[in-house]
From TrEMBL:
This is BRO1 domain-containing protein. Residues 159-189, 279-306 form a coiled coil. It is found in: Cytoplasm; Endosome. InterPro entries: ALIX_V_dom, BRO1_dom, BRO1_sf. Pfam families: ALIX_LYPXL_bnd, BRO1. It comes from Urochloa decumbens.
């Protein structure tokens, strides 16, 4: 590293490539040094000698010197070997074209012979019929890939679990919908009961007018759920009706569902094995001919690569036709072998055709082919039907998940609405009871004055204590107990936020005067009363005091979401289509 540092100092103004090499070498040295120090500190724990105590590094031999005599020796070089006369070059080009034509013609013959073999064997259903007889049945590649995809996704046996998911999601949506409707119905019943109890004094709007939009959306969801249930029934019926068809896809391996060639039950001469053996032998010979054709094609290419007649062309004088004929004759032997191979293949194919006819007659091959084609068609139809049902089930699952989110948002809006209505209900009950208490106190004071005026002064009854508080009037249809201290018993109703029994009297809210100081004439209609600062900011919406628009009070609670836009997105599908 010290030597590298000195080299960098002395290398000012040199080429950038040289500096890059020095920097790269220095980086590698630092990496090696860090690794060596880490290994020594953790593993070897050896003493590191001082750098000054080490000997100087010997110079590295970068190149091997060569004597000048060897460099200048030209006795072994052919300095003008690449210089060829123009006539020789033209003759060489012509010869090359002749060789290329021979090779191209022979290669086309070999390729054509291989294609003829493939087509003829396909027509005779070989060697598939032999493999089927031995139990090695194969399925077409495209059909096999489709079956594997179906089995990976669960197959027909997994459709039942997906149908159960549909049922569970439908049940959850129905329960959510019923719970939301029960919340609204309970609030409407409470409002109607208070309206019946207080009569015209209960001035807030009816629940049905405020929840009309929400109820319409719930009705829409209920209609969609009913349609979805009908679609689920169609899917279940489709699964039950088509399961016998699709059950073939559950067989593993799928080849076990394919028919196989069986030996005849009764044989007259017992030569089935001999027929099969002869056919197998012919197929092996045909395979050997195919391998031989591949070898002949490679020999042609190798011969062309080694064929170099340039020295002969340069040495010759006059016409080169005789030389061409002599050199082209080298390829005659390979061409003859190719021709013999093609002839032998034709004869062997005729022999295989005759043997296959005999094989088909003995093993009833036509019936096997027909049953195999039927099985292929059944597998293809089962795959198509499975994909159709799977698509419908996925649409149903997506529909129920989306609907569940929409119903959940509506339920949350209903909860917010009911909470706001409960706060309004409590405040209105307190206000009505306060008005009734003030009215009864004024009536009692007026009756006492008239009674005292009609009797002599010595017979008048003693005046009540200065701080006595008259009893509050009971609500209509109730007993004489105060309405705020013990509510009237009502079946299936619990007043929200009930007052605390036995609590000390509190100052009336909203700046109203104390009942003992309320001196409003008994027959004068009550003035328009403003409820003051509401406990739930913003609860006075457009349905309260519509003739007196007032700005909304800011507060920590959101605006009542009674007219919020629908959260349920439109869903388009063949089976699940909302109204």
């Amino acid at each position: 590293m010290s030597a590298l540092a000195d080299a960098k100092k002395a290398a000012r103004g040199v080429a950038a490539q040289l500096l890059d090499s020095v920097n790269k070498l220095e980086s590698n040295m630092k990496t090696n040094l860090e690794r060596a120090m880490k290994e020594n500190d953790r593993v070897y724990l050896m003493r590191v000698p001082a750098a000054g105590s080490l000997g100087a590094l010997p110079a590295a031999s970068l190149v091997k010197p060569t004597s000048l005599a060897e460099v200048l020796d030209a006795s072994k070089e052919r300095l003008f070997s690449s210089l060829v006369p123009d006539g020789s070059m033209k003759a060489l080009s012509k010869y090359t074209e002749m060789v290329d034509d021979i090779i191209r013609t022979q290669a086309e013959k070999l390729q054509q012979a291989s294609e003829i073999t493939r087509v003829r064997l396909k027509e005779m259903d070989l060697p598939d019929s032999i493999l089927s007889l031995e139990g090695n049945i194969t399925l077409p590649l495209d059909l096999k890939e489709d079956v594997e995809a179906v089995q990976i996704s669960g197959g027909p046996a997994g459709l039942e679990s997906e149908l159960q998911q549909l049922r569970d999601l439908r049940r959850v949506n129905q329960e959510l919908l019923v719970q939301t409707e029960e919340l609204l119905q309970k609030e409407a019943n409470e409002d109607a009961q208070f309206r019946t109890q207080f009569g015209s004094r209960w001035t807030r709007p009816q629940s049905s007018t405020l929840t009309k939009n929400i109820q319409d959306r719930l009705n829409l969801f209920a209609a969609n759920l009913k349609k979805a249930a009908d679609s689920d029934s169609l899917i279940e019926r489709g699964v039950n009706e088509n399961y016998p068809l699709m059950s073939i896809l559950d067989k593993r391996p799928i080849e076990s569902a394919l028919p196989s060639i069986s030996r005849p039950i009764m044989s007259l001469d017992g030569n089935e094995d001999a027929i099969v053996g002869a056919l197998k032998q012919s197929l092996r010979q045909l395979e050997s001919l195919g391998a031989q054709r591949a070898g002949l094609e490679d020999m042609l290419k190798e011969m062309k690569r080694k064929d170099d007649i340039l020295p002969k062309l340069m040495a010759g004088v006059g016409s080169h036709d005789d030389l061409f004929k002599k050199e082209i004759a080298k390829y005659d032997s390979i061409c003859a072998e190719i021709a013999d191979n093609i002839v032998a293949q034709e004869q062997l194919l005729l022999q295989i055709q005759a043997q296959n006819e005999q094989f088909a007659a003995v093993f009833n091959l036509e019936d096997y082919k027909a049953s195999r084609e039927r099985c292929y068609k059944q597998i293809a139809a089962a795959i198509a039907k499975y994909r159709e049902i799977k698509k419908n089930i996925n649409e149903g699952l997506n529909f129920y998940v989306t609907l569940q989110e929409a119903i959940g948002k509506i339920k949350q809006q209903c909860s917010d609405f009911i909470m706001t209505r409960n706060i309004q209900c409590r405040e209105m009950i307190e206000d009505v009871q306060r008005k009734l208490a003030g009215f009864n106190f004024s009536s009692s004071s007026h009756s006492s004055v008239q009674r005292n005026a009609s009797v002599p002064p010595d017979q008048s009854s003693p005046s009540p204590p200065p701080h006595a508080q008259p009893p509050y009037a009971a609500p209509p249809g109730g007993d004489s107990r105060p309405g705020y201290s013990q509510p009237e018993p009502r079946p299936a109703y619990s007043q929200p936020y009930p007052p605390t029994y036995g609590a000390p009297p509190q100052q009336p809210p909203y700046g109203a005067p104390h009942p003992g100081q309320y001196h409003q004439p008994p027959h004068q209609p009550p003035p328009s009363h403003d409820y003051g600062q509401p406990a739930y900011p913003g609860w006075r919406g457009p349905y309260y005091n519509a003739h007196q628009p007032q700005p909304q009070q800011p507060g920590p609670y959101p605006q009542p979401p009674y007219n919020a836009p629908g959260a349920y997105p439109p869903h388009q599908s063949n089976y699940y289509r909302p109204q």
